[in-house]
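Lecture notes, structural biology module. Today: joint structure prediction for complexes of two components.
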Amino acid sequence: MAIDNWKSMQAPIATIAEIGKHEGQTVTVRGWLYNLRESGKLLFPIFRDGTGLIQGVIAKNAVPAEVFDAVKGLTQESSVIVEGKVRADKRAPGGYELDVNNVQVVQRVSESDPYPITPKEHGVDFLMERRHLWLRSPRQAAILRVRAEIIKAARDFFDERGFTLTDPPILTPAACEGTTTLFPVDYFEEQAYLTQSGQLYIEATAMALGKVYSFGPTFRAEKSKTRRHLTEFWMVEPEVAYAGLDDVMELAEGLICFLVKRCLERRLSDLQTIGRDLAKLQKIEAPFPRITYDEAVKMLQDAHAKGALESNFEWGGDLGSPDETYISSQFDKPVMVHRYPAKVKAFYMEPDPQRPDLALCVDVLAPEGYGEIIGGSQRMASYDLLVQRIHQHGLPEEAFKWYLDLRKYGSVPHGGFGMGIERAVAWICGLEHVRETIPFPRMLHRLYP
RNA sequence: UCCUCAGUAGCUCAAUGGCAGAGCAUCCGGCUGUUAACCGGAGGGUUGUAGGUUCGAGUCCUACCUGAGGAGCCA
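The predicted structure, tokenised, for the full assembly:
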């Protein structure tokens, strides 16, 4: 069947996800052949259409010979349009089967160059090299649907609370924080960089609009090589005028609860396809445990004394990955660690008035060892102190002139946080690695496809 | 950048220093309820690259390449 003759089926089109609504009716399903089992004069093709899988049944004596022959020996991932009657069947994984009465093969995959991803085991490198095809696997498609739901839920959460979406630039003239490595870009013979955070810019839009958020890609040229890192990832960052650290923590807690609840409500079958332990997600509700950095340090030192942690933690350093894993393992909800030493944190964080050596900041650590999914703080409101910090961090004051203006013209206490979408998706889906949470991950050793 | 591990058929893996193999995939044949279907048969290899040790290297040694896991850094 030619590709330009793909609209000849007469029965109404149905999606596999909603096939149950058509029980007893004849429908058209447009998709691909996922797998084929043969048993003599019976064929069991499994079709997928992007919404789910359904097994078809074709008996040789029940259909015209050309229909049977078109499916017999058909290759995996050939595109097909099938017409058949929906029948409830307890033996079928989805509850329904399709008694096929007509088939159009839109494009037959050549048997001399078969679809490379079989329903068997494959290694990570093989699958990553074929990421454009791997996305067709039921598990990968389910993850992408959960990702889309999390993004939509995050935007709904802020939109419903009076936040305005304000998009910061992706091309920036200088380092936002100065510490991490940036991707350089030639901008009409001027040096520019891909953004590593929209935060400084949304502080400006927050002063204009009150409550704002950004949602977009960010880039880090760090040579990180772990299951938690991508060089290109997406962040949602709220920023609120007249907000303190407690407000920031409450907002972060509310967002996470909202996201988890929404996924359980709307993407339950996808979470089941992925194999997520749902009981662990059902425990996620406010309030989350809040511990100070001082308390976290004591937990880590006690853990070392008991032999539960290899290295002994000294007050003053940033929490390492094994430290975060240990702390989060002590709770079955996300844990909020606040008030880190100012010297290990970014220059723009407001000092704690009670203890000026501490910053009014918070990291939210996801349970089950997923580590930091949110980092936030109250921002420094004083012009003079901010100038001092910029110099202390060795940053060029000239590049931050506009940012300092925000403290000259009606400075107010304000704060916000950034949530890494991929880390949130990895945690909610229970994945081993963030590379499966984005259609085409960009990593230290991965720029293709 | 550092530490650890891996690289053998299209894929996933096996092979004590002694004939390079299995399952799946592909092709041929069989099977009217298969569930990663099964049964029989066929084709399929420069063992990551370059050197070295040895009568003999997939296996041991050296260097390099590629990838994975972790550290640091971070979301």
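Point to remember: Chain A has a mean pLDDT of 91.
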